[in-house]
Amino acid sequence: MIFFTNSVRDSAFVALLSIVASHVAVQLIKKLSCRKRPYIILPDVHTCQNPLKDYSFPSGHTTATFAIAVVFSIYYPWLMPTLLPLAMLVGISRMYLGLHYPTDCIIGALIGTVSSIVIVLLLS
User: Which residue numbers delimit the Phosphatidic acid phosphatase type 2/haloperoxidase domain (predicted)?
Assistant: First the structure.
């Protein structure tokens, strides 16, 4: 952050706050929902080596990518056509790897998006 202009530094700080806020929500929901990952429930799901052992709902990776992508899309709208599809690909990859159900990623994307919008509005 020290190497960038004030506007990039400010948007990066907002993205950091959005990730922190969204992950507080993610961790609370994971503890309350206790949803097992698909590869544990579905016998034919093949996943990567050393898969995650915590609960699956919601997807923390998808939440984080949307929290970052939405903040930078708000501050730099010209990045939106690149950042949002990349964030969606992260969610799709989590499902492809057998680590999340579609609803895990959809809710993760929603949490990341809402936290970003709220943080941007609060700091505007």
Answer: 11-120
